[in-house]
């Protein structure tokens, strides 16, 4: 990273230069005043999640001064506002923040006027490096595929609703050390057993249960729609409906691009979505086994209004929202991201917001950039694969609580 980009990243790293003295010792993240209603007297207050060992070990404050404006601040603020209801009530699986930590920032975000975005981020947040800020960025998009609401010639690939017997079990309900972890399966007798795999579902495990939400025209496009987690269905009468994620069968995700490379069918560096699709179409006899090597299966529901909807329960914003690993990055948190757009080769330095997750998005600073709908976004997402540098922005009150800084209370922008 050249010096100019380092300075840009420093500024985006916010860092607290609006008020008072700011000492930033090394430690970990967030705090503020609870915004959720007080629990009923009979409901015990839940203990905050502990900071995960991996996240704790990788944190360091960023004692960098602000330099210049923050790229993408206006769009990031709009996205951050959408995240606030979730931030103020949900547990942070990394344990780095608590719901109340976000109250001051969310209150300030609600009243920040156009032109105040830069002041808002500088006054409310402190930059933190997770795993030295080094990571990797891929991309995803909102696909549009041909489909029918009924099975008919040319539309034979089922897209399934969530089965009623698919059960999610939050393990934290049984042991505090397992908070944030979930297993999925179905009940058989008195046991919870794994749910049907992709291969078993392809062989008919769900047939006859009326779970077909729609029927796709192309099996390979339907597969990639699952990987994206949501998309648009173009019906034979020209109507467009939007569908989104409504569960997963609990099986581990396996990247078929990596599998094709390992088997010598594709070259490393040439296994993007376009190349994978081309290989599948050219090898129809081998393709089913390759697809079934990924046992993970996604279930869908019809979406109304804005979309697609991310893991925060709000519509994600093109080139602003990212998917991240919630074990390291609090969902809803702003991030300053520096990477390269692989298809164009253009550098990208921008403020973004973590509003989604993904089965393949695991580890510190592992990002999936939401690049929007349409063919251009599909091409960009399919090609995206680049190192990234990022800073996690945590609320100033939280940084004080965790002794990252010592200064005056946050000021309204």
From TrEMBL:
GO molecular function, one term: hydrolase activity, hydrolyzing O-glycosyl compounds
Top-level class of the enzyme under EC nomenclature: lyase
Matches recorded under PROSITE patterns: PROKAR_LIPOPROTEIN
Keyword Lyase: yes
SUPFAM superfamilies: Barwin-like endoglucanases
Any GO CC annotation of this UniProt entry: outer membrane
Biological processes annotated in GO: cell wall organization; peptidoglycan catabolic process; peptidoglycan turnover
Reactions mediated catalytically: Exolytic cleavage of the (1->4)-beta-glycosidic linkage between N-acetylmuramic acid (MurNAc) and N-acetylglucosamine (GlcNAc) residues in peptidoglycan, from either the reducing or the non-reducing ends of the peptidoglycan chains, with concomitant formation of a 1,6-anhydrobond in the MurNAc residue
UniProt domain Lytic transglycosylase MltA: residue ranges: 144-301
Transmembrane segments: none
Keywords: Cell wall biogenesis/degradation, Lyase, Signal
Extent of Pro residues compositional bias: 27-49
Identification of the protein by name: peptidoglycan lytic exotransglycosylase
Record organism: Sandarakinorhabdus cyanobacteriorum
């Amino acid at each position: 990273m050249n010096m100019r980009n380092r300075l840009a990243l420093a500024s985006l790293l916010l860092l607290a230069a609006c008020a008072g003295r700011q000492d930033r010792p090394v430690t970990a993240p967030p705090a503020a005043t609870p915004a959720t209603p007080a629990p009923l007297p009979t409901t015990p207050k839940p203990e905050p999640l502990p900071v995960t060992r991996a996240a704790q070990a990788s944190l360091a404050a960023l004692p960098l001064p602000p330099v210049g404006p923050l790229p993408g601040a206006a769009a990031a603020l709009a996205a951050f506002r959408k995240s606030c209801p979730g931030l103020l009530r949900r547990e942070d699986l990394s344990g780095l923040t608590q719901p109340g930590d976000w109250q001051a920032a969310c209150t300030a975000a609600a009243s920040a006027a156009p032109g105040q975005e830069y002041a808002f981020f500088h006054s409310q947040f402190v930059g933190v490096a997770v795993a030295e800020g080094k990571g990797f960025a891929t991309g995803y998009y909102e696909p549009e595929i041909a489909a029918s609401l009924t099975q008919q010639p040319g539309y034979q690939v089922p897209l399934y609703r969530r089965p009623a017997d698919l059960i999610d079990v939050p393990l934290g309900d049984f042991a505090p050390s397992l908070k944030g972890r979930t297993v999925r399966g179905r009940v058989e007798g008195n046991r919870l057993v794994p749910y049907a795999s992709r291969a078993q579902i392809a062989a008919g495990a769900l047939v006859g249960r009326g779970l077909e939400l729609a029927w796709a025209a192309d099996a390979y496009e339907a597969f990639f729609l699952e990987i994206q987690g949501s998309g648009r269905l173009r019906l034979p009468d020209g109507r467009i409906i939007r569908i989104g994620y409504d569960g997963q069968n609990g099986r581990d995700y396996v990247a078929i691009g990596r599998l094709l490379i390992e088997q010598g069918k594709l070259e490393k560096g040439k296994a993007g979505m376009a190349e994978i699709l081309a290989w599948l179409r050219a090898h129809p006899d081998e393709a089913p086994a390759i697809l079934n090597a990924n046992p993970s299966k996604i279930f869908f529901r019809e979406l109304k209004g804005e979309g697609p909807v991310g893991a925060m329960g709000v519509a994600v914003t093109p080139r602003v929202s990212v998917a991240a690993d919630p074990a390291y990055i609090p969902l809803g948190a702003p991030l300053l991201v520096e990477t390269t757009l692989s298809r164009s080769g253009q550098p990208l330095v921008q403020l973004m917001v973590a509003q989604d997750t993904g089965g393949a998005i695991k580890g510190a600073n592992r990002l999936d950039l939401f690049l929007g709908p349409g063919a251009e976004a599909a091409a960009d997402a399919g090609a995206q694969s680049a190192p990234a540098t990022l800073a996690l922005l945590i609320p100033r009150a939280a940084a004080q609580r965790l002794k990252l800084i010592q200064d005056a209370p946050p000021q309204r922008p």
